[in-house]
Amino acid sequence: MLDIACGQGRHAIAAARLGAHVVALDADGDNLSAAEEAAKLAGVRVEWVRTDLERDPLPPGVFDVVTIFNYLDRARMPTFLQAVAPGGWVLLETFLEQQREFGWGPSSPDHLLRPAEIISLVQPFEIMLARDVIETIDGQQMALASVLAQRPVE
User: Fold this and answer.
1) For the chain, does the N or the C end have fewer beta carbons within 10 angstroms?
2) 3-state class (DSSP) for residue 152
3) pTM score > 0.70 for this model?
4) Cα 70–chain centre separation
């Protein structure tokens, strides 16, 4: 599994607990240090990699699962999708424009999705599930778009 923009490793550690081999990428060294400590405490192994998410290449077609949470780079989405192996999966979830109404989270349109936009970001993958939703998590309202899609077998 490849976790892009892993932050402090919440999703990478959860996947490693389930037995996945995880490579987790982030540009922030402080986040990666915190993630490494959290993984040690959890007793799991994750390969933490500091990388420039806006420029550095990714290995093409080698990961069965690629996850991207709370990160949006429209220009790099084709590169991120190329890292998914044929028949593999991408799980993407990030904020919608409506998030601004809640007074926290990203405010730049570069980091917020328009309604239903998420589907176009994973084309030509086969959409298994897509949603735009407002939900409350840990007492905070969030406007989110999510998609689970499978790369066609070539």
Assistant:
1) C
2) coil
3) yes
4) 6
Residues whose CB falls within 8 Å of the CB of residue 60, separated by 6 or more in sequence, listed in order: 82, 83
> Running DSSP on this structure, what letter comes out for residue 79?
H
CB atoms within 10 A of CB 109: 10
Nearest C-alpha neighbor of 115 from the set 145, 92, 91: 145
Instruction: Give the chain's length.
Output: 154
Q: Which amino acid, one-letter code, is at 40? A: K
80-101 tens-digit pLDDT: 999 999 999 999 999 999 999 9
